[in-house]
Amino acid sequence: MLDMEQKLKIFKALSNETRFLIFKNVFTGGYTCSLDKKQPGVEVNPIATCVSTVAEHFNFSLPTISAHIKELKEAKIISVEKKGNKVYIEPNIETIREMAGCFQTLVTNFDNNRALFFDHTLALK
Amino acid sequence: MLDMEQKLKIFKALSNETRFLIFKNVFTGGYTCSLDKKQPGVEVNPIATCVSTVAEHFNFSLPTISAHIKELKEAKIISVEKKGNKVYIEPNIETIREMAGCFQTLVTNFDNNRALFFDHTLALK
DNA sequence: ATACTAATTAGCTAATTTGCCAATCTCTGC
DNA sequence: GCAGAGATTGGCAAATTAGCTAATTAGTAT
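Output (structure tokens, whole complex):
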């Protein structure tokens, strides 16, 4: 279960357009597959990518993109793994699953409370 | 459907601890009911409250809380309605429902894609 | 060893955010 | 009309964020 501090980090990480777009592309496979032809034995999540590949999609410097990726990592939205020279980035789907659950719980409880207020029998159904 | 700009506003609004707590309390009924004894005919959502009631829960000035509430309103997380002297605040559950849907869609699509990659028949099920 | 690539760190500036107080506006009640 | 309560606006200071370049670290390849 995500505590408040963790949720705040997630919201902050996703509140910046650049980070949001990185997040979107990492989770939907928007970046080219990073399986490296020079390192055919390296096992990497097929939709993973690396910091400089991400940077190619933006008009920002590599250090800037690196810092954004660090923030996404600290929010546990992505995870990173250094293999050889590169840092591979992978989506951390469990965090997103938790967020989906949190919002859904809020909606469900809200609907139940509303039913409870206006029609007691409905809430018990 | 929420566009990216709207999502960014929502994430930004919820990335601040004070705004997050206001959000939480407005949606879970954490504030005292604001049905005004002096205005018994006024119809108000039972879990609505007003700006100064919210401010009582924080060690921040009223203008500061007012600004936070404005940001939550512009993100369409809450809606406000002026009745007489006061501004009543109500949860905007539809926005939260949309957020729940967005996250859930992302998770579902991710899981399907993963299944597609590793086992084609699974994805078709 | 040297050179090259990938990435991070450090130090800086500009812009944004978050708080405050004082002033103003709006509505209620006398 | 005037006083008072509720709320917003404007102007300011401090803190944070987001970008840059230059320097550094880590790994690869010659």
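Residues 50-52, 62-63, 66-67, 70, 82, 84-87 of chain B lie near DNA strand D (CB under 10 Å from a C1').
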